[in-house]
Amino acid sequence: MSYFSFDDILASQERLPLKTLASVTGCAFLAPSISQHAHSDDEDDNGEGVTNPSSDSSRAPDDLRAGVKMELPFWMTLSLLRAKVAIDVGVPPIFTLERRPILRADPVSLNLPKVGPKHFYRVGAKLLRFKHSHLGQGDDHLGSVLVDMIMKRFRYILDSSQHCQMNASGKETDILDVIEKELFQVGKQSRKQIEDWLFRRTHKMDMADLVYKNNRKRKAHEI
Fold first, then answer.
1. Does the residue 132 lie in any domain?
2. What range defines the domain where residue 82 resides?
3. Where is the signal peptide (predicted)?
4. From the CB of residue 187, how many other CB atoms can be counted at a distance below 10 Å?
5. Would the N or C end of the chain have less CB density within 10 A of its end CB?
6. pTM of the full predicted structure?
C-alpha cells in the first residue's frame, strides 16, 4: 500500500471474504457477534453457566474459533496472512473464476462501478498477492484479464475524451473505474491545450526581465 496515495488507501479498505481454518488467539473482537453466539452455545440449557463437556475447553473466551466466516478489509487480511494465521481468503464476486467470462466477453461495455469495487483495477492488482484458485491460469489469469481489459477500454476512453463537450460530465465516465476517469481527464486537458495552441489562445511570450532591463539601459545611454 502506498502511504501517500488516497486512492490506494481506499482500495485497501475493500472487504474480502475469509474463513478461519484454526482457532485464532485473542481475535474474537473481529467477529464479536459470532464469538458471543459460540460462547452461549457452550453453556448448558439450564442457564446456570455450566460448561458443555463437548465444547473445546482449551479455547479462551477472547479466541476466535475455527470455521468462522466473515469479511475483513484487505489490509487487515494481509496482516493476518503475514502473521501466519490459518485463514482461507476469498475474493469479491466479480473477481471469481466463474465470473471471468463476463470480464473477457465485452469489457468495453462493462459498468465497472456497478459490477465491482470503485477502485476496480487497484483491488484486482492487490488480489494478485494472494495464492488462490480464483487467480486462474494462462489467458484466464486475473492479471492477464485486467491488462486485456484496460487495453480494450483505452480506445473508448480516448475517443470519449476527444469528442465530448469540454464542460460535459457524467454519462461519459459513468462506466469508468477511478484510474480510467483520470485518463479521461488527461485526454480532455490534452485536447484543450492543442486547441488553444491551434487557435492562438495560448499566453503570449513575454520579454525576459533581464533583456527588458538591458534594453532600457541601452536606450537611456543613446539618449
1. yes
2. 1-31+61-90
3. none
4. 18
5. C
6. 0.70
Number of C-beta neighbours around residue 20 at 10 A: 22
Q: Which CA distances in Å does 43 have to 33, 80, 202?
A: 16, 30, 79
DSSP characters for 168-223?
A: --STTTTT--HHHHHHHHHHHHHHHHHHHHHTT-SPPPPPPHHHHHHHHHHHHHH-
CATH classification at residue 182: 1.20.58.2050
Which residue's C-alpha cell is 477472547?
A: 62
* Secondary structure letter of residue 136 according to DSSP: -
Are 10 and 100 in the same domain?
A: no
Which residues, in sequence order, are CB contacts of 215 under 8 Å at separation 6+?
207
88 neighbors 18 (Cβ within 8 angstroms) = yes
Edge-to-edge strand ranges of the sheet holding 87-89:
69-73, 15-20, 87-89
Q: Which residues of 150-166 are buried (b: 16+ CB within 10 A; e: fewer)?
A: beebeebbeebbeebee
Residue pLDDT tens, the chain, 223 long: 566 788 888 999 999 998 888 888 777 777 776 655 544 444 444 444 433 433 455 556 777 888 888 899 999 998 888 888 888 888 899 999 899 999 988 899 899 999 999 899 999 999 988 877 777 787 788 999 999 999 999 998 988 888 877 665 667 788 999 999 999 989 888 888 888 888 777 666 666 777 777 777 777 666 6
Task: Give the three-class secondary structure for 73.
Answer: strand
Domain count, the chain: 2
